[in-house]
Amino acid sequence: MRERQAARERRRAREFEAFVGGAGGRLLRAAVLLTGENGQTGETGKNSLTGAGPHEAAERLLTAALADTYACWDRLRGEDPYEHARQELAARFARSAQRYRRTHGALEQLAPRERLVLVLRLHEGIAEEQVAACLGLPTERVRVLCTRAVAVLRSRRTPSGVP
User: Nearest to residue 153, comparing CAs of 33, 17, 66, 27?
Assistant: First the structure.
């Protein structure tokens, strides 16, 4: 009995490692966009302002989302683990969005909810209806938030077209 359970745990760990190996980069990029970290580092690879790694908040956010995904791994049979991890990432960001108000880079002018909608809609390519369901918002509200976010980003462009 113990051998069977140990074998199941090893298989579960291998499957999850393969998932993270394939999807981890894309999920980290989404987390970086959500947190607004620009990754400006000095020679040491640490953020020159905080002394932390360039994407510390994004990595914390992603780690928590992946931990939840791993905890639910056996229940995800037949479901898309990427979808679960992305939803957990979005939910964790939404619950703690006030932490990410002060960001740097192109997304600094956006409110956290606008940033979340923009990342889910444009970076992840999720339909408005799915984003609305994920965030518990009406579809029209998601459309307005996305339109406003895009307008803000476009207004920031310089005359040469470079942000």
Answer: 33
